[in-house]
Amino acid sequence: MRLFESKYGYFTPDGREYVIVDPRTPRPWVNVISNGDYSMIASHTGSGYSWRGNAGQNRITRSYQDLIKDSWGKYYYIRDRESGRFWSAGWKPVMAQYSLYEVVHGMGYTIYRHRVEDIYSEMKVFVSAKAPVELAEITLKNEGATSRRLDITSYFEWVLGNFPDEHREFHKLFIVPAFRDNAIFVRKYLGQFPDGKGRWNNTDWNQIAFHGASEPVKSYTCDKESFIGMYGTQERPAALFEDELTGKCDRFGDPCAALQVEMVLVPGQSKSVVFTTGTAIIGEEDPEELLKSHSSVGASRRLFSELKAMWDGLLEAEKVETPDPGLNIMTNYWSKYQAISGRLWGKSGYYQVSAGYGFRDQLQDSQIFLVADPGLMRKQILLHAQHQFREGDVFHWWFTIGGGGPRTGCSDDLLWLPFITSQYVRETLDYGILDEELSFVDGGSATLYEHCRLAIEKSFKRFSPRGLPLIGEHDWNDGMNAVGSDWKGESVWLAQFMYLLLERFLPLSTKRGDGVFADRCRDVMQSLKDAVNEYAWDGEWFIRATKDDGGKIGSKENEEGKIFLNAQTWAVISDITDSERKAIAMDSVGRILLKDFGALLLYPAFTKPAPDIGYITRYAPGLRENGGVYTHAAAWAVWAFALMKDAASAYKAYSGICPPNRSVDIDRYMAEPYVTCGNSDGPVSPMYGRGGWSWYTGSAQWLHKVAVSWILGIRVEDGFMEIDPVIPPHWKGFKYTRKFKETVYEIEVRNPENLSHSVATVTVDGKGGGPKISIVNDGKTHKVVAILGRSKD
Questions:
Q1: Is 677 a member of any domain?
Q2: CA distance 239 to 19
Q3: How does DSSP classify residue 498?
Q4: Among 313, 344, 663, 722, which lies 20 to 30 A Cα-Cα from 786?
């Protein structure tokens, strides 16, 4: 059964794969494939690029950001040597007439199926689970009645360092290719960093790149001009009008990699070849050995099995079965895969290339590991703590290669460390993490607990006379970058966030005997609560912030940007206000901000630049944060509505941002229906509902979290699991399975009375209990049944 089928494609019945049947999708639909070290992007057209470490500092192959043309990649040409006709394994670059074209995006791989002139080709591309190597296994089958003499030719261009390499004429001078042992090896005698004496352009790139084939190479070239031809194109390269490639391989041209292998196929015969591309760190890894261990069909199939097993381990530790197939698909597979492969490991996408980790970004993303491998979340927390300064502030982001980054006055960055740490400890009970001794950027070290406390204490020093946190250079919304330049403007959202953070961090301080700090946190919580309710309530919602001059943002007084989403949702999430104001604020969200495609970040959109607010006002109205649906915040709206037990609004807010649901109007949405977008256009945009900035977005993890924790209502805290669903009343129930170390809990929720919430009874292995279940790790499988029912009071 095909799920969420549109004219461009569909999900397979289990939801693990998305099959594209028409290459003319509204935008490139890609797969970000990574093992945490080496990564690649595979577009549905066959385009894309590769990198190691990060895509900004260590790009391996060339590409340019152009979502209209999508015309850069690692291409594989198939040619009939008798007729001279050629096409490509992917649709690009040749775009030949075909009788079949399908692309399958899966967990860690992409498969291209193509049939041209009775030749069926299947190209499977993936990255080894454990090595800095990508593989393209190409199988050709002769489905005709006569023998065919064919060749397959690879082609791509090298970068080998910082990207973009805009001064190409300079960078190409340092790239030195060589052909030996059936492969191309490449050095670059120009590194990305200065030498030990601070001199730039005086080091080597620290790796050797390679490109090889499992079959004997018939001919090759390392020279772009000899392949493309002067004024030529990738669609019709000059080399494919010649019998062989030129064999030119020196350091005096524009470097590329092209290998040509030959196949003769009798009718019905199939043959396969594997092309490998990768890098080896000089002095640490052996490029010849990497090639040898990856360059065979047998190795390719063994490595592919290992890859699938790796992703099974990360994805199958948790499973949901609900009446909503879109929620099932995203929660079971694609949200987790996107957060891990795209955000945490690959750190890149077609809409945005990153050269590092955002301090708050990947901390939040790391929550995706809580079920499958909490140790990976632990590792991420410890990594981020080491990018803090002794004063408690942090890098806004940092380069993952070479280190360094902007030490900014962003007011919320530093607080995500104690927030995520407390979340990790609450769920795993790993109090030992707090004793880990970790360095500061500017020298010295302290325990993780002290790192977290320093972040909080630093923020305590950034309060206005009214008791509200100062917004500084900006808070969560980077686009509000002019609100508090003079350190006078206030952030109401930050006050709400800090209130919840302190509530969650308090138990850690108390458990460690740090009573003085715990008392200080309680005092600040009360001060924040008083200030928010006294100064930030605008009658029907909370204002978002105040400017340096005291002017309000997100108020009825404003002509534009009258109401902001986060100040309402976090009033509920943080529990900083009373039930009446929560209800009024969320009613305003429902009336004004909640639309068919999720909750708008603000309303109405800014139509003219406001230099005292920031670049958010300079976006076109309805785009991204300026009156669009910003998916990260829209997921928080689901959380808030669920806390209010407003199942209808929670489900509407979720359904609007759940990508498979957009298959019904896919030409409006344009983006991939299998991963979240960073945003979709708001109603004032002529492209209302258009998705953008897919893959590299923190919304993937949050979409998963709100689905499990707040719609299904399965939450783990302090050794207990709570079952507190907020679901559509027409759901007759759902199932949820989760591993806890060696133990499995199989949960079934039944809804015989068509309710949206309120658990009446819970049994564990047939024995009665409460809505909170004590978790035991006994290596067994436990069956839990929860039944929704009306109170008997």
A1: yes
A2: 33
A3: H
A4: 313
Round to whole Å and give the CA distance between 351 and 529. Answer: 39
Token pair of 662 as six digits: 């957009």
Neighbour-count burial of 284, counting CB atoms closer than 10 A to its CB (0-12 exposed, 13-18 middle, 19+ buried): exposed
SS3 content of the chain, % helix, strand, coil (to 5): 30, 30, 40
Note the pTM of the prediction, 2 decimals: 0.97
Mean pLDDT on 756-775: 93
Pairing of strands 743-750, 781-788: parallel
Start-end of H helices in 229-316: 287-294, 297-315
Using the 8-state DSSP alphabet, how is residue 103 labeled?
A: E
- Over residues 579-614, the pLDDT tens digits come to 999 999 999 999 999 999 999 999 999 999 999 999
Residue 101 pLDDT exceeds 80: yes
305 and 351 share one domain: no
Residue 153 falls in which region: left (phi positive, over 0), alpha (psi -120 to 50) or beta: beta
Give the side-chain half-sphere CA count within 13 A for 76.
Answer: 29
Instruction: Look up tokens 């069956």; give the residue.
Output: 783
- Structural domain of 650: 317-711
Question: Based on the number of CB atoms within 10 Å of its own CB, is 293 exposed (0-12), middle (13-18) or buried (19 or more)?
Answer: middle
Q: Are residues 422 and 510 in the same domain?
A: yes
Do residue 288 and residue 337 come from a single domain? no
Contact 579, 570 (CB under 8 A): no
Q: Which of 659, 687, 711 is the C-terminal boundary of a domain?
A: 711
Could you tell me if 229 and 342 lie in one domain? no
Domain count, the chain: 3
* Predicted local distance difference test score (pLDDT) of residue 793: 54
Residue finishing a domain among 289, 313, 337: 313
Say whether both 239 and 325 belong to one domain.
no
Tell whether 19 is covered by a domain.
no
pLDDT tens-digit readout, 423-475: 999 999 999 999 999 999 999 999 999 999 999 999 999 999 999 999 999 99
Phi/psi at 115 (5° precision) = -130, 120
- Distance, in Å, from the CA atom of 397 to the CA atom of 757, rounded to the nearest integer, reads 41
pLDDT bucket at 773, cuts 50 / 70 / 90:
very high
Return the CATH number at 457. Answer: 1.50.10.10
